[in-house]
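Final report, section 2: Outcomes. Of the targets proposed, RING-type E3 ubiquitin transferase is the one most frequently requested by collaborating groups, and we therefore present its record in full.
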Amino acid sequence: MDGFPVTLTEAVCLGASFAFSGLFYCLYKKSQSAVNKLENAPRFTVDEKLKELLKVTQGACLQYAVIEGTVKSEEKPLTSQFQKEIFGVFQKFTLKEHKLMWNGILRTWIDTEHILHQRVNMVPFLLVGLDKTSVKVLHPLKAAGTYTEITYEKFIQASYGFGNLIEQYVSGVKPKGQLEIEEMLKVGTTLIGVGEVRLDADDTLCLLPPSDGSQYFLSTADFQTLLSSNYSTTLWWKALAVASSLAGAAVLLWVGLRYYRHLKFRWEQEQERRMFAEQRAEAARQPANEARPENVCVICLHHPRDCILLNCGHVCCCYVCYQALPQRKCPICRQRIDRVLPVFQP
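The predicted structure is given below as tokens.
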């Protein structure tokens, strides 16, 4: 591709499409692997049969299994900060600030938010079965899935005066207010856990993140909903990977088309050069005649006019001066020159 430049925009778009395609494909494969593991994972109820099964299992461990039980606190449960009758084992308080930012490109206000403060409280908890068999849940913060519900939500609207309004329009930032959210995993909630189930030496059942790196899940939804949600996520990553790949292919196609036009232009130039070289060789074999003034190139005023410019049809310059033109435009009428042909004038 000698002499063919790839623009910065093309290079950036091509590199970005390859990078995003690789990223989305990796996320798709990871998500697909999680879905496959979920589909093939054995499902157990929390009871004495599970404990007996683990006792006869090598290593007293199920590397990936699905269990379901009711949440129970091992210690004194947490109390909701805003509703004292609600108790739980996991509590997360989030304070978000909402602002309107002026977008100069779209010429409109864009709603944005960022977290000002977040606090998490947790006590050890169990999943209890119908026969009171319990499984201790370890490292719940490492789990994916939705296992909390909103127990309190309040939006505190910002108040400002006339001076604040002027400042907002000058700075392009308009505060909307603050949002307080409390989320809790309540005592008594039915919870699904997906991960490694282990029987410790003290006869305690434990649910923990899988040692093989598989995805760890805790969810208040049923198993089919959890599976469908992860399958939808997989489809989204797949669609993004395909879209990024198609965008990269489109950029490659565009660069290839430009390269083809570049080669075609160079081939046409080479054909023109050969035709005019043959014409000059033929003229050299003819008896030398002094060029008439009306047949002299209008640019160099020395060589005879030996080319016709198309599509305007003017015969006004020699081929050497035509090649030196800064723009492919006729020196007489300034029309674009699409082709040039040799012309022999005796």
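The CA atoms of residues 46 and 129 lie 5 Å apart.
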